[in-house]
Design brief:
- The complex is a heterodimer of chains A (62) and B (251).
- Chain A is mostly helical and 62 residues long.
- Chain A has one domain.
- Chain A is 79% helix and 0% strand.
- Chain A has three helices and no strands.
- In chain A, α1 runs antiparallel to α2.
- Chain B has two domains: 152 residues, no CATH class; 74 residues, no CATH class.
- Helix content of chain B is 59%, strand content 0%.
- Chain B is mostly helical and 251 residues long.
- Chain B is built from eleven helices and no strands.
- In chain B, α2 runs antiparallel to α6, α3 packs across α6 and α5 packs antiparallel against α6.
- Classes of the chains: A mainly alpha (62), B mainly alpha (251).
- At the A-B interface, α1 and α2 of A face α1, α2 and α5 of B.
Amino acid sequence: MPFRVKFLLSLAWLMTAAGGYAFMVHLGQTGPSYAVAFLGVFAVFAMWVFPEVAKKNPASLK
Amino acid sequence: MELAMTPMTERQRKYRENYRERVAGWYNGWLHILLIYTIGFTALYVYIANLHDVRWWEFLAIPVVCMFANFFEWAVHRYVMHRPSNIPMLRAIYSRHTMMHHQFFTEQEMRFADHHDWRVTFFPPFALVVFTFMSIPPAIVAGWLISPNVGWLLISTTRAIPFYWCSATPHCGWLCLPARLLSPRCSCAGRRSWSSQVCCSCSSPNCSRRSRPVCGTDAREWRLQAAFSPPRSVFWPGFRPERSADRMRET
């Protein structure tokens, strides 16, 4: 996935998670609010550490 | 790292070998599962924690969403995943699905060699993020229009479905449901493989899905595209598949 797309997706996800956190706090949901905050950070972390599939075989580039 | 006893073709074997070399060496299938299940179950916890005093009719959201999700899945395969597009994002989906997934797994060989092969089947983390984005608007609308519980059940169901489709039973028969509903005359009896389940290898002369390959596509790609072509009788009430089959034989 191109860097730009991944960056925008991460940004949108963090903003959504922030909104979700505020909504859970507004509803008085303590556990779910922490879960949403965790989800926001963890999903972004997972997206960035997850290995991409190279377009070309690394051996053929040598 | 390949299956010892396998009927796969040389082409498939080479593709699988090449794909594995293109995946970063530290990839671990079990870690992949851990990542996506952590995201999925955390999200499910949030959704379910917000359900309160659910009435019996609100649970009807689950089968209704499952049914819509089936048709959505079918449509995405038909119009995006098996059809090359000029739009880069859609083209990328096509490339990952048809050009990678369906070359890695074929009707001759659909098995994993080991957990490193899960990279080509299980959703990557960004897909779960995208699915969540796609589910939020309908959940908000359902929550406003019907009841908050229906909204939470809707998003819970859309979150749970990918687990079922892509974790529990890859290439399961559910995908064939819309095809069977739209084309009841098509007999899909055959091996439990991708192509037979979606009717593309149906040998019945009454099957309205039969058509000739399109120029410029190889037989395999055509068959994958044909698998998701809606039967013409749905959009063309006067269409008679038998006559079409006769015409095909004449030409």
